[in-house]
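Input.
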Amino acid sequence: MKRLAQEAVIVSLARRLRDEGSWAGETHIQKAAYLLRELFGVPFDFDFILYKHGPFSFELRDELSAMRSDRLIDRETQPAPYGPRIVATERGRQLEERFQRTMSRYGDYVEWVVNRVGDRGVVELERLATALWVTREMGEATAVQRRAEALNEVKPHVSISDAVEAVKEIDSFIAEASGNALC
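Output.
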């Protein structure tokens, strides 16, 4: 996907997350972009690695900084201990409007992801995104318990019971996404 089209999708993601009452910080954007790529094949030009709080892309972090410099998004500072929220600017909304074909192609996917994770906190997003990472690495046919144990191995602060729930939920996301008419 070309850079401006990719930026339009990210602006849409940030805007729709905020519209749904999400905190819409960088972690939300990171995890939602990862879900978009993995569940729907949205062709972001970002590599994700398993990092401190689950799948993370340094390229996406750089893109968010560039988008802020280009005044497509802004950061809304929050009182400590909270991090900033990402907000789409008027210029960003104009970019989104210019890329109607891109948005018609990926907008339903963005909406699908936002509806499922928009109101979640960063701890829950970390579990879900890491469960998807583990599932992609091990394969969906691997037993839920084994994938939960693998999640716990890479994220020891996530209990086995929470890991099992995250893996089960990701399995339902995968089934719903693959069975969805959007795919």
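Residues 72 and 79 are 23 Å apart (CA to CA).
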